[in-house]
User: Fold these one by one.
Assistant:
Number 1:
Amino acid sequence: MPVTRQQFDAFVEARVADSGPGMTDDARRRIFDPYFTTKPDGTGLGLAICKRLVTIHRGAIGVDSFAGSGTIFTVTLPGYTPPAPGTETP
């Protein structure tokens, strides 16, 4: 499962891709809804929690998927900007 990372001036982007069966349009629309699952033993909370955590940190999470061609999740978070010299607080 390839994972890529890019850092831009204002944000960091991570992508996780697989070559699995992909998702239906309905699943893609609902994938971040609490309690939505396509697994027989799933709780449907994993991606809902991920989205909430990313949102709390002022980021975004998205999914690109087409049935039969795999899925790519993209997480974008604000980048870290170190304080200017002399402006640090103890």
Note: Residues 7 and 13 are 6 Å apart (CA to CA).
Number 2:
Amino acid sequence: MLKVANYLQIKLLIYNCLDSVSRKYSLLVKVDKTKVIASDGIACRILIQNELLEQVDTFLTLGP
């Protein structure tokens, strides 16, 4: 099992990669429509294009 500090560092690395790769390939992430959910219940701050993503408790899914 990962230690909490390592787990948070890994999450931060993934989010930073998402931001840098989307910029590299000119992919537009619609920050106002993008939400984040933390399955472990720990609040997180995720920045994409220098904007904070909204954290939610649940998602509404429209498909199977």
Note: Helices lie at 4-24.
Number 3:
Amino acid sequence: MRSFRKNSWTICPVRGNWVLPNLGGILPQASSSPVNFTLQPGMSGVTNTMNISTRLLLILSLVLFPLSGCATRVESHEEPSHHESEKESHTEAHDEAEHPEHRVVVTSPLKKDVVSTREYVCQIHSCQHIEVRTLDEGYLQEIHIKEGQRVKKGELMFKILPILYEAKFDTEVAEANRIQIEYDNAASLNQKGIVSPQELAIKKAELAKAKAKVKLAEAELNFCELKAPFDGIVDRQRHQLGSLVEVDDILTTLSDNSVMWVYFNVPEARYLEYQSKDNSGIQIELKLANGNLFPQPGEIGAIEADFNNTTGNIAFRADFNNPDGLLRNGQTGTILIHSTLKNVIVIPQRATFEILARRYAYVVDKDDVVHQRDITVLSEQDDIFVISDGLKEGEKIIFEGIRQVRDGDKIDYEFVEPQKILDNLKNHAE
């Protein structure tokens, strides 16, 4: 017999049973925790020759081994403590206190006159804007204007060196004077019967031709002097004094800003609406890039002949007087067209909600039952919608508490007069 040292065995679960290593025993599973036991020094035995009675004793001892400690630990782990339960209850009560259910406020659509405003991005142009180009080639001899200067009609702006044109003009004038002398001499001889009438007529035609050449030379000479064709503002100079310029070179541009033409694109539906009604009551304003309104009112000056087939728009032109010269060619802004809509249905924006690009409102019937209804918005103001279809005057709609109700709910509510609601609107739709 061989003595055993201090050893330890662990019982492990195998398919619902416990296995005792080195003992070959299989025990019914009673717990999910391993069970250890130890042979104290002095115990002896041979692993392969342990007698049957010893094995049975060990098996019975292990089957009856108390496992209450594990169950206690599991229960203590799964059941929350009293302190945690109190904490959760306190949190739920706090959340309910922080987020109380809002009251449901109901109002009615209101029929009234509304000023509708449509906005269009625009481009601002001078009523006259031209390029000042050269008509002859030569050296730029004189510049009589400065960039940004205001000029009057007929004022001299540029002068090109005129030596060749002056010489040509002098030559043609001299030739015309010579032919004039010949014609006067022929006329005198014709009175004496020396020169026939036919010869006198030929001299007269030569004189007319010579005078025409003088006018042509004078015109070419005048091409060297560029004068302002109208009152306006000079733009940037493209050439400096002494520059050699060619025919058709741009020297500067000139803008008449007394009246500004403002162009903006209008969709086809708005164009048809404009043409189908009396537009005498509309007001047109111009909002500048800094958000300020231009002080002068505008009016529709023209509508282009053709639609743009790519965008489906047509260009309108609004004319604005510009007495202070604030507007310049090339500016941008926004056109505001105000028109009065008579006896239309209006509701607060907060009384509506949007689903998949469609606008809805909750209508309360005579039994206080909520119904979701599709509405059509004709125009949008700062805090209200003008409704063209879907609601009638006198119906009840939910103003506050939209998120608390569903279609078909029966509700308790507080009714507020629509005019009082509209007088205190500050928020848009949810």
Note: The longest strand covers residues 110-133.
